[in-house]
Each structure stands twice: as C-alpha cells, then as structure tokens.
Amino acid sequence: MKTRTGVLLAVLRKDLRLFWPLALLIGGLRAASAIPHLIEGSDSIAILAQIAIPLLTAFLVLVVLHEDPVVSLTHDWLTRPIPGTKLLVAKALFLVLAIFVPWILSRTVYELVQGHSLGESLLAGLTSGADRTQLLPILALMAFAAITSGIRQAFVVALVGVAILMLVRLPRSSSFEGPLLLSATGSGWVASEGAALLLALGAGLVLWMQYRHRRTWLARGIASATPVVAYAVMATITWQTAFAVQKSLSRDPAAAALVDVGMAENCFSIRDTAAAGVSRNGDQRVALDPDEYASVKRAGFGALAFTTRLISHSIPEGHRLAVAHVDFSYQAESRLVVRPTNISPRLVKGAGEVGIVSSNRWLLTLEEQQRLAATPGVESHFVYSLSLLQPVAAATIEAGAPRRYLAGIGYCSATATANVMQTPPHVIHVDCFKPGEQPAQLIAALESATENLVHMRSTDFTPAALELWDGKYFNVALFTSEVPAPRVRLTAYEARAHFDREIVVPGVLGGPLATCPLVPATETSP
Amino acid sequence: MIIQTEGLAKRFGRHDAVRNLNLAIPEGATCALIGANGAGKTTTMRMLGNLLAPDHGRARVLGVDSRALSREDRQRIGYLSESQQLPERLSVDGFFQYLRSLYTNWDAGLECQLRERFELPATRALGKLSRGMRLKAMLIGVLAFRPKLLLLDEPLSGLDPLVRDEVMSEILGQAEGTTILISSHELEELESCTTHVAFMAHGQLLFQESVESLGARLRDVAATLAGAVDRGALPATWLNVQVDGPLLRFVDTAFVDEAGLQAQLQRCCGTTLHLESQALSLRELSKALIRATRKEA
Q1: Residue B193, in any domain of the structure
Q2: Chain A residues within an 8 Å CB radius of B51
Q3: pLDDT tens string A46-93
Q4: What is the ipTM, given to two decimal places?
Q5: Residues whose CB falls within 8 Å of the CB of residue B114, separated by 6 or more in sequence, listed in order
Q6: By residue range, what is the domain housing residue B256?
Q7: Distance, in angstroms, between B294 CA and closest chain A CA?
C-alpha cells in the first residue's frame, strides 16, 4: 500500500477529509447542471446557480492546490516524501472526482433515462462533462494556483490582472474578429484550436515547471506570456493563413480539377439602392436589406450596389461545394484599381451541389465608379476559396423507429409530430449524437420525391485528431406536409480538397460598360 | 559525512543570505548550528532539506545531492521548523493517518507511544492546538519514521522550559544513532547532547568543531593585573575584551594551557596577580561569538 500509489492516495484522502463539504456542494450543483434544462432559464435560482457554479469551482481548484502550495518554503508537504509530480496528480485526481465525475455520472444517468444505450449514455456523459471547454479553464486555474502562494495572493493577482486589462484595453482591430469570421467558414479551428493549444501547453509547462522543478519565477514568466501569445495568435491570424493551413491538410488536392465554376450572370445584378427607387437596371433590380441600406447610405450620393453569384457547372457525383471566402478586386494590367466594399454579412459562406453556391453583395462609391469608368481594360478579379465535400457516410432513418448507431454519423433517431395549427402540419425531429471524430458537414433531408427539405450543420473542418474527445449533437426539425412516418436521409461529408479558384471577368459589372453599364443611384436616401 | 556542503551560497536580492558555506557533519553527530538572527541558519537548513535551491555550490545529504533527493531519501530525513505550516484543519488523528501512509518505515508503535506520552488530543484540529502541542505533533511526525538525519530549525523557540525539556528528552531518547543538525537559541537544552558546533555569522560559516575541541580551545578568562593594559598589544585571538581598572576579562579562542596564557598576559599586560580560566557553556560561547561578530560588523 505504501507504494508510490500510496502517496497519491494519502494526499487524496487528506484532501477529501479537508474539502469534502465543498466538493459535495460543487459536485451536486454540477450534477444538476449536467441535466439539460434543469438549471437554465431566467429565474433567480437558475441565474444564481449559473454564477455560483463556475465561481465555486474556481474557488475549489485554488483552495485544493493552495493547501499544499508549491510557492512556499514552510508547508509541511515540502518536508515529506511526496514527489511534486505525485502531488500534482493527486490534486488533479481530486478535482476530477469533485468536478467532472458528478457531471459525467449525472449526464450518463440522464441519457439512460432518455432510453439511450449504455454506450451512448457513457460517451455523452464523458464528452459533455470533460470536454475541452471545461478542461482548459481548470488547467489554467491549476497553473494559476501553482504560481501563487495562497488564496489571498491569487485573489489580489486576479484583481490586478482584471484591472490592468480594463485599463489597457486589448487593442481591438478588425483582425480581432478573425476567429469569429473564420468560424463561419469551417476554418475557425485554426485560430481557436491554436490559441487553446497554446494555453494548454502554457498551463502544462507552468505545472511541470512548478511541480517538477519549483522554478517559480520562470513559471510566472511563462504564465504571463502564454495568454499574451494566445491572444496575439487569435488577433492576428488572417484568413489567408487559416486557409493556407486548411489547404495543406487537403486529403486529395487533385480533386480540385474536377470542379468547374463560373459567374452566374453575364451582367451582375444591380441592387435597388434604397427607397429612393433610383436604380434603372430594369428587371435585374433587387431590393436592399437593412444592413445594405445603411452601407449604401454611408457611401453617399451616387453609390452603386450589386450582387455577384458563383455557379458550379460540374462537381463529382454526390459531392458538395462550400464557399468560404471571396476576394474581389478591380485590376487593370495586373494593377489594383479599386477594391469594392463587401456589404454581404461578413464572410458569406455557401454550400451546395450543382447550381448557385455563393452570392455576395458589393458597393462602389461614385468616385470609385468614375475611376473605373476612366480606366481602360479594367477587369473584375475574383478569388474564391472553396472546399469540395465528399460524402463519407449515409443512412436512412424512419421516424418513430428505435434509436440506433449509424457508422460515421452517430447515434440517431427521428420522431414525427403533427400540429394542425401550423403549415405544413408535420414536423420530423431528427436527433443525432456523434462522439469522437466529427463529419465536416452533416445533412438531413426528407426522403421524398415531392418535398426537398434539407437541414445541414455548418461546415467544420477541425482535424480528426483534435476531435477525439468531442461529442456533438445534431438536432433539426424538418417540416413537411407528408403523411407521418416519413424517412429521413442523413449524409455525412468530409472535406476532400480545399482550393482557390480565380475567375476574371472583363469590365466592371460582368462585361464591357456598353453591355453592362454602371447605373448609380441619383440619391442614396429618401 | 552525512552532510557535506561545498561553496554553498544563496542570495536574496542584494542580500547574501549564505556565502561559500563548507559544512561537514559526521554520521551520528549532534551538531548545534548557532549564530545571531539573520546569520543564515534557516536558509542553510532549507537548502539542506531541498526546500530552497542554492545559487552556487552544492550540498550532499546522506550522500545524495540535496537537489536530487528521492522519495526514498526523504523517508530517512526528518525536517522540523518553527515556521512549518501544517494542514491546520486536519485533526491530530487525521494528520498521523496521512503521515502513516507516506512512509514505508513508519513505526506505528512509536507513534502510539509518543502520542500517549505527549497526551495529544486525537480529534482536535492541528490549527487549534497550543504552540507546545503543535510542536509535539510535529516532533512525532519526524521521529516516528526513525530518520537517519534530523534537521531541526529552531524547534524550541517560544516554548516554556517544561515543554522544552520534554521535547529535548524525546528527541534524544528516540533519535539514538540519528545525526542531528539543530539550530536553536535555546542552547542550555542542547548543552548535554551536542557533539559538534557550527557557528555562522553574516551568511558565513566561521567555524565548525567538536565540542571537546572547542571546550579545550575556548576559555573564559578573568585576570587581575599589576599594571595598565595596552589594548594595542592584545592578541587577536582574545574576544570581547573588557578592562575595568586592573581587571581584565576576555574569551581566549586559542587556549592551550595556563602556562601559555600566563606568558601571553605577561607580554601584553605585565605581571598577572591573579588568573582564572574556565570552559564556556554553549550559551556563553554563543553569546561571546555573536557579540564579537557584531563588533566586527
């Protein structure tokens, strides 16, 4: 018993003796919050619990580690035959028992009660209770505790840190929104996983440095630098970098040659610039939405808004094409003349089979139009960043049939309900849970000749190695007028190739000015 | 040697806490590490116990580099310090239960015997024990695994004389064959058991010697002189020289025999009418040395 494991157990037992009431409280609260909808909503108890759980958890991490602090010359454990790394493992074990196990058990039981299999229930419990979003903050807190001497110092340092952040204010630039923009393209993982990996590495290094070598100042240096570097990665990563990483991970780059795309129209559709109704492009006019209207109004008198659309002429059978980004510029003799303003809601992402796969809206000020009109040989240059998605798994489920595991898709079931008050009256709820490696995209479609209802999960190209500990749910509702018990076709896709496709169109609006003339607004506000 | 240091040094900011310390303690010795407050005793103890990393030099403890002490080595070293922070909310019972599972060499019988003798309240939290009780609990915590080396940093500080006696008698009774390095200002309690003395001042080890050798070399001298004292002619080996008319009092640090002392007195101070010399107690020795080093500083 008095082996090396004995040391772990001795420390663990001691901590349990000291902290069991707090551990029990937090375990109970976390077990309750693992049950969907139990601690949610806006009533005061729910709000209090939602605030208390993370605060109490953080407090538990700090007090447990500070019970035997590394930053000390006087604590009893330093004089005992307790290797630092064993102490760390014992503390981590205690935190797993107090923080993660109650959640995992509670969620597993909940899933079992829902009628799911033991395997699915356990996986759902494990992946929801100990996923990266929960593990990383605990790891960071442990690292923080390892470089502070006690709860009081930790509290003061945390307060000072928050105050400095508020005073300095992290520089906000458009690039800071990079990860948000990237996440819509499926490549968000490059920034978010990069930053998470850095934080995890930094925290791990701090813990190693402290519990193995007790190099407090070095550990504090690493702890201070890590969030700065992680923030810098998040703030500065560009679309080009992210997509370059993505392209380098293409499974079959040659498949790009199988894709044929082009611009949908000979002349781009001019948007009806505002309520003034000034656009004169006849039947190609399209009404502005409120966001566009604000942009057009800001652009001033004579602004021109128009739409460009990408169409895929051919892609491999069963594949889908996802558009992550488009770069549009006007060039003459390889020289940049004007870069029109993109007034699409941020990066427009599209995914489709053959047909229109992307639609973007642009804005030219009067001055830009004049410059373009005066420049001979002006061309429209588009660079589309595309992902070719290949079906890797497909299965059909029937509403009301028992839940089952579908290879590559996950545990799925569908239920049909009817409500005569709504149109269409039938709703098919599809519920899937996929542990581990996730498909880049999952699509549910009603298997019906008369209705073509498709619901998809946004593309996410996170590499499989980073998804091993993930568990994702896919819940959609398909509305149909079909009779009950219809069948739903589920298809999982993986990215086959990521590539850029350049399209050059003569003129400003898809052709020479004589064919596709500039028709600016005479006014931009009513 | 159970403890051997070579050029051990530690600096805190601009302050040299320990400088070029070369200490050697033989197996079975009970060495009193003495010196004024701030002399570097605690820092030395902490470096020996690997609580603190030295900036320079190295220490070998039980034949192992102090920075590389393994769990097995730790099972043979008992470290007790007045400033030691225990798991305060743990009960006495809980504390010993915890310690028992840490040591393969824990002697449960000895623990039981000592706990009975010290009458420790089993269910009381360590944080609620009196200073004396707390120290007794700590003492059991370092004696019950029968260590080969005991590092005791001011273990008697702030205790009443009765508790001091109790503690010392248990240390001595149970730690037979154990090498002990003890730093303390309560030197009377150490008098009977100390075999070696190491004296530190301003971060430096000024000397380390066996008690016999020190007793023979250091003498408290009182002399009555016939003539005046020429202070400039006094030997450098005489410390804390006090002159009051014909009376001269000092500590001779290089005493060989009375005849030699007489000859020295004759050279510097003329005829000696009366001469008395006696061995110093550890406490007097410490006081004399501290006083002398303060004057030097």
Answers
A1: yes
A2: 73, 78-79
A3: 788 888 899 999 999 999 999 999 999 999 999 999 999 999 999 999
A4: 0.88
A5: B136, B139, B140, B143, B144, B170, B174
A6: 219-278
A7: 28
